[in-house]
Design brief:
The protein is α/β, with parallel strands linked by helices. The chain has 2 domains: about 55-160 and about 165-235, Rossmann fold (3-Layer(aba) Sandwich); about 255-420, Rossmann fold (3-Layer(aba) Sandwich), CATH 3.40.50. The chain contains 14 helices and 16 strands. The protein has helices spanning about 30-35, 40-50, 70-90, 125-130, 135-145, 215-225, 245-255, 260-270, 275-280, 310-315, 325-335, 350-360, 370-390, 400-415, and strands spanning about 10, 20, 60, 95, 135, 145-150, 150-155, 170, 180-185, 190, 200, 205-210, 230, 300-305, 340-345, 390-395. The strands form 5 sheets. A 7-stranded mixed β-sheet has the order 5-4-3-13-7-12-8. Strands 15-14-16 form a 3-stranded parallel β-sheet, with helices on both faces. α3 packs across α6 (about 215-225), α8 (about 260-270) crosses α13 (about 370-390) and α13 (about 370-390) packs across α14. The longest helix has 21 residues, at about 370-390. The relative contact order is 0.12. The chain binds 2-acetamido-2-deoxy-beta-D-glucopyranose (2 copies).
Length: about 450
């Protein structure tokens, strides 16, 4: 029924206003004819009511500080998801998944890497078993266009916080940093909206926040009636309850997209003699039905290594090994666990990779062709690497790397023995080499 899915074309009108042109006369709202002021976002309720989809629900959008990488962003998703759960106790909200792109680590040249929907990396039905989610394009279609009614930029408190007096609080405050949004000639806010240049904000203000994600809930429920609210710099929110059941439910719902898992599985079987049946790594497509007793999964007959380089090395961190040091550890682990294959995931520059290959000629890497890279993108390649690392008999990662942390969680979900998971390289001169913490899943 085409009449019930309004298409809106926007053209500049008199007095500099934007006039929406509905191509479908049947959906022409009464208010318009009566001269009501156009308010972006208002179409959604009427149109969707007819389509029976949105029922006047409200939309939560968010973004993260641009320099933050893929694996930290996955952690921020967990925090925002717990805010959504809190909101859902009072009202109907849906989380709009922030399109991926423009990430610092995604440096493959000549590949279009903005406006990437979540479905390219994650399984949407799995996410939706945890909280209601939609892609950004769906938000635009159902809310009536590329408008976000209220943008809150989250920031800390200008005065910092006094030691010993931690309290959770949130207040509207003047913006501390210069706003990255500017007003266009129609008084709309323009800025970075995941590469959607036509998207505009109607109102932007700053909130100083100190506390966990759900502290924003009262503000969203009581202080604003905007139907679409974006929280920018959402990494300023802390976890409601790190490591709790709600945390793990969300984490478990972040199932990798099937097409990426298939690529990883093919690679395992082809180069690492690793299959789910032989490795006893049973996977259930429905994460809510997956609960594996730790240690019952065996993992494939290989050692997996995540060797984070680049800025971890340039910063001369003492908890990061030299290549020689890393290879020494790798050889010793292979010997201890009687493994003759080793899979390496690394962001090392080409020169370092060549050096590593000389020191460890038997190592196996997932090296995408240009076509594969274009298809899966840097994010997909990272996921394939993580999927292969997650299935190894033994894993060793890099100290305080979010890439390694996400592998820990994946192995925990798969039910591998914690002794084979929570390992990291030590710096060549590191005195106390504390190993990663074991976070148990709360089911
Ligand atoms: C929200 O509204 C309450 C009550 O009017 C007010 O006290 C509070 O400062 C407001 N909070 C924010 C963040 O605007
Ligand atoms: C592959 O693994 C199986 C056990 O799952 C083993 O019997 C077989 O010898 C292995 N093949 C190679 C080539 O290592």
């Amino acid at each position: 029924m085409a009449a019930q899915s309004p298409r809106i074309r926007v053209r500049p009108g008199p007095r500099g206003l934007l006039l929406p042109l509905l191509l479908s006369a049947a959906a022409w709202p009464l208010g318009w004819a009566q001269g009501d002021e156009f308010r972006p976002g208002q179409w959604g309720a009427a149109a969707e009511g007819a389509a029976g989809a949105a029922r006047g629900r409200r939309y939560l959008l968010y973004d993260v500080n641009p320099p933050e990488g893929f694996n930290l962003r996955r952690d921020v998703y967990i925090r925002v998801a717990s805010l959504v759960k809190t909101l859902l106790r009072s009202e109907e909200w849906v989380l709009v998944l922030p399109p991926w792109g423009r990430l610092y680590h995604w440096q493959s040249p000549d590949i279009h890497q903005v406006r990437i929907p979540w479905a390219e990396f994650f399984d949407l039905p799995s996410l939706a078993r945890n909280i209601p989610v939609i892609e950004y394009e769906q938000f635009m279609a159902e809310s009536g266009g590329p408008f976000i009614e209220q943008v809150y930029v989250l920031q800390s408190y200008a005065e910092g916080w006094k030691e010993g007096t931690w309290e959770e609080k949130i207040d509207q405050r003047p913006c501390i940093d210069q706003l990255l949004y500017s007003r266009d000639k129609h008084e709309y806010y323009r800025g970075w909206f995941w590469g959607y240049e036509e998207t505009r904000g109607l109102s932007v203000s700053c909130l100083s926040v100190q506390g966990s994600a759900s502290i924003v809930a009262p503000v969203l429920l009581k202080n604003t009636s905007a139907r679409s609210v974006m929280l920018d710099r959402a990494e300023n929110l802390l976890h409601d309850h790190y490591g709790g059941k709600e945390y793990w439910d969300t984490r478990r719902s972040m199932v990798f997209a099937k097409h990426l898992r298939v690529v990883g599985d093919d690679f395992r079987s082809k180069y690492l003699n690793s299959t789910d049946a032989a490795d006893k790594t049973i996977y259930h497509e429905d994460w809510t039905k997956m609960k594996v007793k730790l240690g019952t999964s065996l993992g494939g007959p290989y050692l997996a290594v995540h060797l984070r380089r680049k800025d971890f090395v340039w910063g001369h961190r003492e908890d990061v090994p030299s290549l020689q040091g890393a290879v020494k550890t790798i050889r010793s682990l292979m010997e201890t666990h009687k493994l003759d294959r080793v899979f390496v995931a690394t962001d090392a520059v080409r020169k370092e990779c060549e050096e590593l290959k000389k020191l460890l000629p038997e190592m196996v890497r997932f090296e995408p062709t240009w076509e594969e890279l274009e298809l899966y993108k840097d994010g997909g390649i990272a996921i394939i690497d993580q999927w292969i690392c997650a299935h190894a008999r033994v894993f060793i990662g890099t100290s305080v790397s979010t890439f390694s942390f996400r592998i820990h969680e994946e192995r925990e979900i798969l039910g591998l023995d914690p002794k084979t998971t929570y390992n990291r390289f030590c710096g060549d001169q590191e005195q106390q080499c504390e190993q990663p913490t074991h976070w148990k899943i709360a089911y």
